Amino acid sequence: MKEDYLEKKCPCGTGDNFKDCCFPYINGDKKAPTAETLMRSRYSAFVVFEPEYIFNTHNPKTRTETSVEDISKWSKESEWLGLEIKNTEKGESHDSTGVVEFVASYSVEGKATKHHEVSTFNFIDGSWFFTDGKIIQEAIRRTTPKIGRNEPCPCGSGKKFKKCCG
Predict the structure, then answer these.
(1) What's the rounded Cα separation, in Å, for the pair 83 and 39?
(2) Residue 150: its pLDDT value, please?
(3) 80: which strand partners?
(4) Residue with more model confidence, 1 or 104
(5) Are 136 and 118 in contact (CB under 8 A)?
(6) What is the spatial order of strands in the sheet that 127-135 belongs to?
(7) pTM of this prediction?
(8) Does 126 score more than 70 pLDDT?
(9) Triad 63, 69, 74: Cα angle to 5°
(10) β-pair partners for 5
(11) What's the CA gap between 131 and 126, in Å, rounded?
């Protein structure tokens, strides 16, 4: 499936063609030089359905936390809509660790969602690996006024909220 994307813009969002951007990493022709490059190529691998690449770039010490089957399922069930890199710390060729904060937008069964994560990467034996991720939960804000327990129920029953829908 990755060959279908060769002449298209890379899903990672750099604006480059896929064949010149993430394809060489996913195809095994080159190693990602930075943690951010690995993050971008892993996102692109979800889009072009290359679950083995995602699995193989997971730190061998924490790889048991996932499987090619789990990755395949999420990749197939999702329509990938875009990647935004929010922040990077370290993760250059001379570093041993790196952190990349990103937001991946995708849709499952027509419902759009965003996956906001801060990922940790390690440089091991000449290659970058994804090690761990912390999901960032967006604050939920109430859009309607709060209903007090003793106020009339908004459903129109005439009962107090606490005795009806509360």
Answers:
(1) 10
(2) 79
(3) 106
(4) 104
(5) yes
(6) 78-90, 97-108, 111-124, 127-135
(7) 0.82
(8) yes
(9) 100
(10) none
(11) 15
